[in-house]
Amino acid sequence: MAGKKYAAVVLSAGKGRRMNSTVPKQYLMLEGKPVLYYALQAFEQSMADEIVLVAGREEIEYCRKEIVEKYGFTKVTSVIAGGKERYHSVFCGLTELNQSGCRPDYVMIHDGARPFINNEIICRCAQAAEAFQACAAGMPVKDTIKIADEFLFAKETPQRKYVWQIQTPQAFAFPLIYQAYEELMKREQQGETFAVTDDAMALETMCGRKVKLVEGSYENIKITTPEDLKLAAAFLYHRKDLVTVKC
Asked: What is the DSSP string of 41-74?
């Protein structure tokens, strides 16, 4: 990884409607700090060279003053406004990096509502990105999965050993993922509609590229519902200091 520039795009523009809270989930307090703090801290302490934080337009000033400045995140070079959907926000972050005058070689895209990312996962994603150009963190599912039909009858049961729950970060060669999102935006402007729920899907759909799956962690949950916040507090309470893994 020597000589390669890495950037992270951390997404914090979601509204978190399923949390049943007037405060977006990424700004809820977890052991005295905003959920977003933990994701930014992980990338601040990693081999990433810079971080672009994508927030809701009305939260930009809060993010700058109450998170970036308050906690001294020196690698956060930009706090910018996101878009209507997640994939719009990702494109905003990628465009910011593309226009910075010093494009990264690789970029990691991470949901700010996933506080338990760690340096070990970041390193695995970085290594896979260099080897395969595109990867996504995830874990094999523990439960049997059923594919439902439109009437909610079980239609199909995929083999569990091939089914993964996908997480972030997802890491890519920067030109490759930027090209995929440019094509996505272009086709959307032409009237096509997409339900792109993660960055691997954008690359698969727009460029037909395969994405390598990389081991994340069962603790690398996304805070989505009130139950998740309780679980996160338990993880944090019982978490031992992690040994820093150097890439």
From this structure: HHHHTSS-SEEEEEE-GGGHHHIIIIIIIHHT-T
Q: Which amino acid belongs to residue 247?
A: C
Nearest-5° Cα angle at 164, 6 to 128: 25
Q: Model's pTM, two decimal places?
A: 0.93
Considering only the C-alpha atoms of the chain, give the largest distance between any 2 of them, rounded to a whole number of Å. 54
* C-beta pairs of 65-69 under 8 Å, 24+ apart in sequence: 66/34, 67/34, 67/36, 67/37, 67/40, 68/40
Query: What's the confidence (pLDDT) of residue 113?
Result: 95
pLDDT, tens only, 204-243:
999 999 999 999 999 999 998 889 988 998 888 877 554 4
Do 205 and 194 meet the contact criterion of CB atoms below 8 Å apart? yes
CA torsion through residues 197, 36, 46, 104, sign? positive
**According to the model, what pLDDT value does residue 24 have?**
76
Rounded-to-integer distance, Cα 8 and Cα 227, Å: 28
Q: How many domains does the chain have?
A: 1
Strands ordered across the beta sheet of 6-12: 76-81, 50-55, 6-12, 106-111, 164-173, 134-140, 212-215
Give the pLDDT score at 237: 81
List the CATH number of the domain containing 220. 3.90.550.10
Per the document, the length of the chain is: 247
Regions of the chain short of the pLDDT cut 50:
242-243
Amino acid (1-letter code) at residue 205: T
Its domain, for residue 183, covers: 6-238
